[in-house]
Design a protein that fits this description.
This protein has helices spanning about 1-10, 15-40, 45-55, 55-65, 70-80, 100-110. The chain is an all-alpha fold. The protein has a single domain (about 1-85), classed as lambda repressor-like DNA-binding domains (434 Repressor (Amino-terminal Domain)). Helix 3 (about 45-55) packs across helix 4 (about 55-65). It starts with a helix and ends with a helix. About 5% of the residues are buried.
Length: about 110
């Protein structure tokens, strides 16, 4: 938990641009963690997971090391192939979208 406290201290003293970078790194770390946990749970090598997703082992390695910025579309595609989904939460000061508002906006772009 010391790492969490260190992260919080960084955020408390960060500039707005540094906060963007820290948030970005947090997102990449969450994606990496999900891929690593999936492989561990199903006892898969990077190559086996890559074959399942139709990408190279090098790309899996880059995802797991936070070195590849996946598009949202690709992330959703890979999650669906693995039987999962992507849950994104965006918080804006003073703005709250209801679940139906979110889906209505998405349907306009998908349909």
């Amino acid at each position: 938990m010391a790492l969490n406290r260190a992260n919080e201290m960084l955020k408390e003293n960060a500039t707005p641009q540094e906060l963007v970078e820290l948030s970005y790194v947090d997102i990449l770390a969450s994606i990496a963690s999900a891929f690593i946990k999936y492989r561990s749970k199903y006892n898969l090598t990077q190559k086996m997971l890559a074959d399942k997703l139709g990408i190279s082992q090098v790309m899996i390695s880059r995802i797991e090391n936070g070195e590849w910025n996946l598009s949202m579309k690709k992330l959703v595609e890979y999650a669906k192939k693995l039987g999962g989904n992507v849950d994104v939460q965006v918080k804006l000061t003073g703005v709250e979208l209801t679940k139906s508002a979110r889906y209505n906006r998405i349907e306009k772009h998908v349909l």
